[in-house]
Amino acid sequence: MAVDITLLFKASVKTVKTRNKAIGIGFESTKDEIFKRSRPKSGFSPRAKEVITNITKLKDFLLQHRKDYVSAGSLISSDLSRMTDNDRDQIDQDAQIFMRTCSEAIKLLRSEAEKQVMSAQIKEHRGAVLDLIETYLKGVCKLYSEQRAIRVKRMVDKKRLSRLVPEHHSPVEKKVEVEPTEEDTIKEESSEKTTSSEVQDNPVNLWEESRVEDELSPEEIQMFEQENQRLISEMNSLVDEVRQIEGKVVEISRLQEIFAEKVLHQEAEIDNIHQLVVGATENVKEGNEDIREITSKAAEVAACLGSCQLRRR
Amino acid sequence: PVVLSAISAASSTTVELNIALKRMLNFNAPPLKNTAAEPVWKVLIYDRFGQDIISPLLSVKELRDMGITLHLLLHSDRDPIPDVPAIYFVMPTEENIDRICQDLRNQLYESYYLNFISAISRSKLEDIASAALAANAVTQVTKVFDQYLNFITLEDDMFILCHQNKELISYHAINRADIQDTDMEAIMDTIVDSLFCFFVTLGAVPIIRCPRGNAAEMVAVKLDKKLRENLRDARNSLFTGDSMTAGQFSFQRPLFVLVDRNVDMATPLHHTWTYQALIHDVLDFHLNRVVMEEGMGVEPSPAGARPKKKSRKTYDLTAADKFWQKHKGSPFPEVAESVQEELDTYRAQEDEVKRLKSIMGLEGEDEGAISMLSDNTAKLTSAVSSLPELLEKKRLIDLHTNVATAVLDHIKSRKLDVYFEFEEKLMSKSTLDKSLLDIISDPDAGTPEDKMRLFLIYYITAQQAPSESDLEQYKKALLDAGCDLSPLNYIKQWKAFTKMAATPANYGNSGVKPMGLFSRVMNTGSQFVMEGVKNLVLKQHNLPVTRILDNLMEMNSIPRNKNPFQEAIVFVVGGGNFIEYQNLVDYTKSKQGKKVVYGCSELFNASQFIKQLSQLGQK
């Protein structure tokens, strides 16, 4: 187990101080402290810390509103959720702007660090600091994209459930409110299907009618039964379809995340390759020059030898 | 924090070490679990000792993840970076202290966290205090710690004392004829300091057992004294109360067995057949890192062209490498098979991903295609997200293919399987189907060193020394093969001395009566009691060190305590190797619920050991 000897160290400092006093050596303490502070303090560190503070603000902001953002409110009452969709859109927008700003700030610091002349160690240190900040930013962005994915999923869920609600609940207002949207979605999705529009109007009429009339003729009953069966099977297939789509949407959003990451990776690698190619071109150029030198020197030597031989003869 | 299983009675050193290092690198505070925490950056300054301790446990990436932007050697040119805190991890030597004082005077960093690998003396602490005062940097020295980490953990259950300067405490250093008392004292102090640190880190006071009359006993006595002194001072003891980590649940003191290398001289020379031990024997393997040259074979190059540079590749064999963890103790043929299996599995997975790529080109015209598409979307998502895993798998497969191929090349060119088989037969006193002379004289089998190793094992394990004429014959054959005979001189001396020390070997320990059984083991220690090995399939047999441990663990050695030991640490003074380690690992596997840790003062392969024997034989 490690032993903390900081206090021992401080005690040693006192010992040395007293010893020095006794011998007569004194160290000016307070004056130099002030001068020490005026060491060249580069702008890098405070600015880097500022970016971190900003990212932390974003993180706190996201976490603070996360519960409200993610809660879909009660699925039954559509207007008592604590956050409207507009609010959520606003949060999304703000978060995106913030993330972009932070990313730009990091890029700026990096390009400045490139331009400045400083020792290799400081350069490496600053590069690593910026890498750390970027990783932090990525982590916070992940928070954002996670809750956004949840929101999307909930929206799809809500749509699906809200379409099925009228089958189980009786309040008419509910139906009237919900059905138009249901009809819209049905219209959209079944555009390829050969569903006649009468069928869509009929459900409303049928149900209202059934409450008004007490008796129905046997033919009507049969017809209604058939209609019911058809409607049930249609609904089921639509439910399946919507389930598929919902799954796809979630997967697509996940894929998008992954692909975005990969593209960023590739960008870095392409930069790398570019640098390597530039380096290689340089090497080849130098190599060619070397070869030219050598051939010209060889030519000289040959010429000399030729002239020597001539002279000898 | 350590997740303790109720079964294991004590925690492992690697875990403790990891915790200790991570804490140190977090400004001596427990690291936060929250991964989305703000990054704090720092630079790490170490000496070569510190580097050797950290590098087997933490990769550069892990250091970066902890916020370390630069890691630099203490004695290197370092530029001032005035806005960053610096964490130092160094030995408290004179030159290191001087350099730290210099750093303080030059105002290199914003603040200083000084961590000393072993305890710093009061006077050196005052030197730093003095420099800090002179430089007005006292407030900048934020923390000073004695880390007690003066040893290197290579595996969860294996440690060595040091890598730098190991010649100071090598077998040669301890056993040379011209050693002075002061030299010996210094060596013993070094060893004891490290062992003390080990037990402080483990958080347990061991029960020490060792044979009498050699270097191991000296170490045992000194260690015992140091432990007692520390325990006596209850206020400052390192083994009580809050200095122990929260997870310590050692209900029983562990057994600490100290043995001297001289108890078994054949194992360090033995040719081996398990993966890790083979790598250590034939390749360049230090601190869990293999260094290999690629591009074997000489190509005739046209005159005047620059010679083709051989690229050096380094591979780190870590705890995260699942294949390595599974197979480092496996016999080599099994390893080769498994690499092939892994390669096949990987190729199948790769093909799956490729197939998905072609399917995604579908236009989705009919129902079947649409449903297949959504099914494949899910597959693609999982394939894409498992890509990093796949790439990592590929990297490891490449690594092990290269390493195993290199090992196999050595086996084939030197006929190491022949040597292994023969030596196993020698050690188990089975009948030999070839003559020793044949192997030595065979120009195709092995390097001169291989032949010398084989002969020395023969000599060591022989019941009776060969006759003079036989010996001359062997010597001539060895010289013809190009061997250096000086190790033989030393082994002769050793053998003679071992025979002399046939007096009952008593235990030196913390006050318990001597064990007669050990003396018997001591005398017959060179005999490996082991069945014959067939087809180079390793059968479990116990090497001398393992047998010593087994005897001790099974006995009820403390009068009041009737329970056999659950945890033991075996330490070889004078050096050890992976063969011994592997043997202990295999032994431990066969014993439910027991935990054994292996340590040695230095780690050498046969080549390095023979060099030391050669030096000793030349005096």
TrEMBL record, chain A:
Bilayer disposition of the protein = Single-pass type IV membrane protein
Q: Which organism is it from?
A: Oreochromis aureus
* Cited function: Syntaxin that may be involved in targeting and fusion of Golgi-derived retrograde transport vesicles with the ER.
One GO CC annotation: SNARE complex
| Family matches, as InterPro entries | Syntaxin-18_N, Syntaxin/epimorphin_CS
Q: Which UniProt keywords apply?
A: Coiled coil, Endoplasmic reticulum, ER-Golgi transport, Membrane, Protein transport, Transmembrane, Transmembrane helix, Transport
Which protein family is named in the record?
Belongs to the syntaxin family.
According to the entry, every stretch annotated as the SNARE-complex protein Syntaxin-18 N-terminal domain falls at: 4-91
Q: Does the record carry Oxidoreductase as a key word?
A: no
Gene, per the UniProt record: STX18
Q: Which residues form a coiled coil?
A: 221-248
Q: For the region Disordered, what residue ranges are annotated?
A: 163-201
In alphabetical order, the GO MF annotations are: SNAP receptor activity
Protein name in UniProt:
Syntaxin-18
From TrEMBL, chain B:
Note the InterPro entries from the entry: Sec-1-like_dom1 (IPR043154), Sec-1-like_dom3a (IPR043127), Sec1-like (IPR001619), Sec1-like_dom2 (IPR027482), Sec1-like_sf (IPR036045)
Which GO biological process annotations does it have? Answer: protein transport; vesicle-mediated transport
The name on file for this protein is Sec1 family domain-containing protein 1
Looking up Pfam families in the UniProt record yields:
Sec1
Q: What does this protein do?
A: Plays a role in SNARE-pin assembly and Golgi-to-ER retrograde transport via its interaction with COG4. Involved in vesicular transport between the endoplasmic reticulum and the Golgi.
Q: Which domain of life is it from?
A: Eukaryota
Which SUPFAM superfamilies does the record cross-reference, listed alphabetically?
Sec1/munc18-like (SM) proteins (SSF56815)
Q: Which gene encodes it?
A: SCFD1
Species, as recorded:
Oreochromis aureus (Israeli tilapia)
One annotated Gene Ontology cellular component of this protein: Golgi cisterna membrane
Intracellular or extracellular location(s): Cytoplasm; Golgi apparatus, Golgi stack membrane
What is the membrane topology noted in the UniProt record heading this document? Peripheral membrane protein
